[in-house]
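Shape matters. Shown next:

___
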Amino acid sequence: MSKALKILSLCLLSCTWAWTAAAQAVWQDPDPVTVDRFKDEAMQRSQIMDVLSYLTDVYGPRLTNSPNIREAAAYVVKTLNSWGLSNTREEKWGPFGTGWSMSCLKPVRLRRDIFL
């Protein structure tokens, strides 16, 4: 066996041993009082349905870089600030092209004989 292969085998064996030892670490059980506080907050004072329905009903579909996604992001920042979170802001990401939105959708009735 070549020297490079022996060193590679030793490195792989060391990494495997370290990963196995880390995976077998002892985890403490969660604090039941803290878990109960989370459950109480979720069941008694949750606002997720209000926020989710507002985002879907008012802003609707949000394509990347569209006016709807910018307005929805501003709403989320304003809502988080009203809840007392600090340093909330929209993070800019990705180079995207021009966004667009459909402002008017008008149903048109077609004649049946066109399709026959």
